[in-house]
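Please fill in the sequence for the structure shown.

STRUCTURE ENCODING:
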């Protein structure tokens, strides 16, 4: 079996293991945020920051959300990192955005955040703030889901069935799951361009 065959076989296995009910809970939870007029804040670090930016576009354009990613403003991100520290960069940004109980926070992360290991503490601090403010919280994460899976209202955990390739599978399939979400009948308000030309 070639590496390509192996990677694609692993991908299929992880997709088959996705908790369909968890995906539905995220979709319906996000729809509830939109229906009450809440905003959606999408958080991610590294490759997941790039995903957050892409997903903001999709949630805004396809689903009619008022959505934002703090990592899209590199000046504020780096100023807060430099002046206040990396662990509070998202929570302070959310405070400045007046995060409220009407809003939602969606985390994309391979590990979901872990204070004990000092991995993605900024995600943990943001979720702590969301909990204090009563905002809805959601995640698409890998491994065991970390802090995100423990505290979120609904979370999709992508099973670590290929331990030597957890990061590429989680990041790749995160994109599959969020595209599923923006295509979900309870979420999608506007047709995508190519489909609308048929």
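FILLED IN BY: designer on duty
SEQUENCE:
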């Amino acid at each position: 079996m070639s590496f390509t065959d192996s990677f694609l076989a692993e991908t299929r296995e992880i997709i088959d293991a996705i908790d369909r009910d968890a995906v539905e809970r995220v979709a319906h939870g996000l729809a509830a945020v939109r229906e009450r007029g809440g905003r959606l804040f999408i958080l991610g670090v590294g490759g997941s920051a790039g995903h957050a930016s892409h997903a903001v576009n999709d949630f805004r354009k396809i689903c009619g959300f008022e959505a934002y990613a703090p990592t899209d403003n590199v000046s504020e991100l780096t100023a807060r990192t430099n002046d206040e520290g990396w662990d509070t960069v998202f929570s302070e940004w959310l405070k400045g955005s007046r995060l409220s109980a009407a809003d939602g926070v969606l985390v994309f992360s391979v590990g979901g955040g872990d204070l004990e290991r000092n991995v993605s503490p900024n995600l943990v601090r943001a979720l702590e703030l969301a909990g204090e403010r009563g905002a809805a919280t959601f995640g698409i994460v890998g491994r065991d889901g970390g802090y995100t899976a423990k505290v979120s209202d609904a979370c999709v955990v992508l099973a670590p069935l290929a331990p030597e390739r957890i990061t590429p599978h989680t990041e790749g399939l995160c994109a599959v799951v969020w595209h599923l979400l923006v295509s979900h009948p309870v979420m999608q308000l506007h047709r995508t361009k190519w489909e609308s030309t048929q």
